[in-house]
Amino acid sequence: MDNCKEIQSRIECFEQGKLSLKNEEAFTNHILGCSDCREEMEIYYIISYGLDDDEENRTIDSHYISFLDSLDFTGLVEQKLKDSKQKCEFISQWSRFNRLRYFFVSGVMALTTLLLIIIRFF
Ligand SMILES: [Zn+2]
User: Fold this and answer.
1) Rounded distance between C-alpha atoms, residue 46 and residue 72, angstroms
2) What does the alpha-carbon distance between residue 75 and residue 49 come to, in Å, rounded to a whole number?
3) Distance 93 CA to ligand 1 centre (A)
4) CA distance 11 to 28
């Protein structure tokens, strides 16, 4: 599933934030280790930057602007991948924590119920 063609077809979805967490993680990990796809992603940004003449309608995260101003697309891609990796790690840690909390809460509830039953009937 991790072939370059498929990854490269997801660049636009990645940029628009349309990938699921699992897909984004796979995407980012692949591109970090694959110079072909990284190059493809740079080209994507070069083209979309070149096509986008309308400065006022541009919606770019302010911390990417300095890369664009200096036309450093390699740096831009690197920064985007780094951010995405951080985001994925954060979300997966967060959901792990939530799962843990869920187990804890249901554990406590089961114990309380058990305790109530014991108190009530014995
Ligand atoms: Zn690749």
Assistant:
1) 9
2) 14
3) 26
4) 10
Q: How far is the CA of 63 from the centre of ligand 1 (A)?
A: 26
Query: What's the angle, vertex CA 85, arms to CA 84 and CA 88, rounded to 5?
Result: 85
- Cα–Cα distance measured from residue 27 to residue 80, given in angstroms and rounded to the nearest whole number: 12
Q: How many angstroms is it from 15 CA to the middle of ligand 1?
A: 17
pLDDT tens-place string over residues 43-75: 999 998 877 666 555 566 777 888 988 899 999
Q: Where are the alpha helices (DSSP H) in the chain?
A: 4-9, 11-15, 21-32, 35-51, 62-69, 73-121
**Residue located via tokens 């406590």:** 108
Taking the C-alpha atoms of residue 69 and residue 76, their distance in angstroms, rounded to an integer, is: 10
Other CB atoms within 10 A of residue 8 CB: 20
Q: How far apart are CA 47 and CA 110, in angstroms?
A: 58
**What is the per-residue pLDDT across 77-101, written as a single tens digit (0 to 9) for each?**
999 999 999 999 999 899 999 999 9
